[in-house]
Every structure is written in C-alpha cells, then in structure tokens.
Request: fold
Amino acid sequence: MALRVDYIAKETANNLVRNPSLTIATVLTVAVSLSLLGAALLIQRGVDGLNERFKDDVEFIVWIEPEATQDQVDLVSRSLEESSGVSDARFVDRDETYAEFIDFWEDSPEVIDAVGPEELPTSFRVVPVVPDLAVVQALGAEFDGLPGVLKIDFAGEYIKQLNEFTSIASRIMLGAAVASAVASAMLMYNTIRTALFARRREVEVMRLVGASNWFIRIPFMLEGLFQGLIGAGLSVLSVYALNRGIRNLLDSTQFRLLDSFALESAQLGPIAVWLLLCGAVIGFVGSGIAVSRYLDA
Amino acid sequence: MIKLENVTKEYPGHSVALKHADADIGKGEFVFLVGPSGSGKSTFLRLVNKQENPDEGRIFVAGKDIGKLSSWKVPMLRRNIGSVFQDFKLLQNKTVAENVSFALEVIGRPRHVIKTQVPAICELVGLGDKANKYPDQLSGGEQQRVSIARAFVNRPLILLADEPTGNLDPQTAIGIMRLLDRINKTGTTVVMATHDRGIVDTMRQRVIELSHGSIVRDEAQGVYE
Reply:
C-alpha cells in the first residue's frame, strides 16, 4: 500500500504543535540529558588526549641534595645505569638546572634575583623501560633511600591525579546523562500517549475503516523522532558552546597541559553524530512503547 | 458471508457475552440482531470485524477463518466491513466531505478516486448539498447518513450497524432504514443490531434473537416478538 507522504507530514506537524508546552518540555529534557552526555564525552576525549600526549614521557626525576658529595652522586648514577628497569638516565648539572630555572621564572625577575645557581639541586632525568605508572613508581622507590637523594618526583603523578579526577567527573556526568535520558524517554512516552489520547477518535475511526497499523503509528513515532532530534540538535549546540568556552579559558590561562580538553571543531563531529543518534533512539523508544501499548489490541 | 461456529465470548468479571453461538449469514442478506441490552448483540458485531476475539469457536468472513488472520491483515478485513454506530463517531473538526474522504485517505486510496467517490456517496445518502457542513450543523439523522456514507464509500461486502437508529426519532429512523435497505439492494450484506420493534416488524427481514448470550431464535422474515 502506498503511504501518503503528504498526509503523514501534515499529521506529524499537527501533532507537534497540538500541545506546545508538552512538546517543549520533552525537547528540553532531551536537550539537557544529551548535553550532559556530550559534556561527558568531551571530557573523555580530553582525558584520552592527555594520556596520549604523556604516554611516552612517563619519567621520574631523582633530585640530588645540593650538599651531596661527588661519591654519592656517582653511586646514584651507577645504580641507575645498573638497574634493568631504566632505559636512560641523564644527569642535569647545576648550570642546566639554573638555565631551566631562569627560563621558567622568566616573567618574575625578583625570583631569579633571589636564587643563585648553588642553591639549586642537580638531578637525574630517568626514562624507564616500561612506561607504566605502577612500574615506574616501584622503580623510583628503589632510589629513594640512597644517600644524597633529596626526593623522587614522578612526572606521571600529576597526570594520574588529573586523570582520576576527570574520569570520576566524566563518570558522574555519564550517570546523570543516563538517568536523565531514561527520564526523557519516559516523558516522551507520556507525550506520545497524550497525543494518542487527544486523537483517540480519529484513531478509532482509522482502525474501523481499516487503516494499516503502520499508517496509524507512523505520525506518532515521527513526532517522537522529531522531538528527540530537535532536543539532540540543541545539545549539539551546547556542546559546541562548552568546547568554545574551554578553548577560551585555556587560551587565556596559557595552561598548555590541558590543551587536549579543547577539541577542534572537526573532532566534535563524531560526538554530534552520537548525540543525534541518541536523540533519535530516545524518540523512537519512547514513542514506540507508547504506540505499541495503546494502539495494538 | 459470515459464519459463526460454536462461538463463546466471555468478558472477565462479567457474565458470558456470547455462548455456543452458531449462525450462517449469506451474501446479500439483511439480518436483524434483536434482544435486550446485554444480550450479546454488540459482541456479535465486534467479533465479526475482529475488534474482539472469541474465547472458543471459529468465525468465517467471506470463507476465511478470521481467527487465523495475522494482525497486520486485520485492516484488510476491516476494509471489507463497514461499521455504523448509534453515536455516529464522526470527527467534529472535519466537514461531511472530509469525514467521508478521511476513510479513503487513511487506507491510501489515490486522490482522483477520492475526488469522484466522495461527492457520489454524499449524493447517494442525500447530503449532496451539505458536503461542506460540519457535524454540529447537522441533525441526528443527517449525521447518521454521513456515518453510513463513510462506512459505505469503500464499497464493503458487509455493513455492520450497531443500533443505528437508537438516537433518532421514528420518522428519521425510517429514512435511515430506507438508506440501509438501498445499500443492501446493491448486494452488500447488512447486519443490524437493534431493539426497535417497529422497524423490525415493518422490514420483515431475517431475525436472529439473542438472550443472555445465546441465540434463541433465527427466522426468515421474522418479527421482533
């Protein structure tokens, strides 16, 4: 049977404007829940990017006490060379440390003036064989007790903490997104049920004269689909806005470490596709359950 | 055309609506279903167009066991069965012509068919000049004519009428019966549930009488009793 496209388009449009307050509520709920999902995905991408950048650089620094003797330094150097877990260890002497120090405090001459090269500790920059944080930490601990060692710093430590924090944040957001997605599907179900109720006489006549089940269902399911997609569209806009906000924030603080948290527009494409897909699914599931519960008998 | 074999239908919590009913209605017949309220007349009609399914027994429409019909084919069955009700079931926001063409639109009939069929059927039921009126601008009898036009516009094999004159005064009812009689003369099988004694006695058609869900009488050219 040929479905009448113009009829279905007209009915769907009528359904969408018949109960504007409910339609708007549904669209906004979908938009909020998918915005949360989008933000969670954004953070997830940022964490992935962060880990990617630091994957090869996980290293630790063995700081030597400024008063350490040359024998003590040699001992540390030898044990690093002999350790099977260390792939490379580079000694950074006082001059190089001071050069880095000046570089780092470039904008604060008063700090540079206050500190002389002799007050800075020398260090070994160590690249481990296995760039795994747990292994690196165990390895670093081996050198902690050696005489003349000031302390061990793990470059990975900071990353790890950031990682933990962001993954917890993204998990919470994901949980909230799932909960509100369920809520919006349920609201969708009720919206479509209300639409079915508003049109119960037409539906009754359609059934009596032998309209096919799909012919009756499609306008209602399309109504759900459109509401889901409009909500998803709004959430895509809010994710773009969020990303732009992060980008501006990062640009203004020049905090390069977190650069991966602001994605390029092209990278947002897959997230947008996911959100639209989820919006469509919410619309179809909510309206599908409503029509199958209230139309099939 | 319609055949019931040992059909029983029970509504949970209520008494039996139809029990062990047998009936055989031929093509082109005009049959009255009579009996007091709750005797099973409406259930009989609702079973024929599969708005209800029997608990027991089999129902054949045009030779096919409709119990074996898959759910997506039920609409095809209903396209061959027109339905008319006591309360007309017209859509108030549509005109006479729109109410009638709605029945064709939703089963996907092409526009040119609708354009020719709708005025013709409006003419047939005597509402040619009221095609653009809304239901609330019409009398009860006229509204029932619209509903008959809608039920008949697709030229069904069977017309089921559930107390079609129940809301009408006797004079108007006679007009509706004339219309149903004309439709029957075109070869359409008409099954009408009623408890209007005058109509049944005047028409002298086949009468099936129901009492507490059982068929207690089935006679050709019967009266109400």
